[in-house]
Amino acid sequence: MFANIGHTFSLIRQSGRVLMQDRKLVLDWPDWRGDDTVTGQTISFTLEPNGAGTRLIFVHAGFTRTADIGDYPFGWDGFLGMLKEEAEGA
User: Fold this and answer.
1) Distances (CA, A) of 89 to 2, 11, 50, 64, 71
2) CA angle (42 as vertex; 16, 59 as ends), nearest 5
3) How far is CA 35 from CA 11, 38, 46, 56, in A?
4) Do 27 and 19 form a contact (C-beta atoms < 8 A)?
């Protein structure tokens, strides 16, 4: 079960709060460099039935700096790989 809207969270040295929940969990996501002037980024996790399993759709949105668009895939690639390993071992 997802946390309530407004709940604060900590994930990979970042913290934020839950913005939306239901079939999709949307979290506000602070700038990884710690720049408080960069706001409006979100990450979302959507779970959908997929045959005998479940498909996870991950979206990181709200980029305002071009450099961030190029930087983030490297970090998320590693994290989502670890998440996949954890889910498959459950």
Assistant:
1) 21, 20, 18, 36, 29
2) 130
3) 17, 6, 27, 29
4) yes
Q: Report the greatest alpha carbon distance in the chain.
A: 44
Beta strands in 1-90 (DSSP E): 8-11, 14-20, 24-28, 42-50, 53-61
Is the pTM here over 0.70, yes or no?
A: no
Residue 59, token pair as written in the block: 């979206």
Q: Each residue's pLDDT tens digit in the chain (90 positions)? A: 456 677 676 665 556 666 656 677 777 888 877 888 888 888 888 888 889 888 889 898 988 888 777 777 777 888 778 777 877 875
Closest CA to 15 of 25, 7, 23, 3: 7
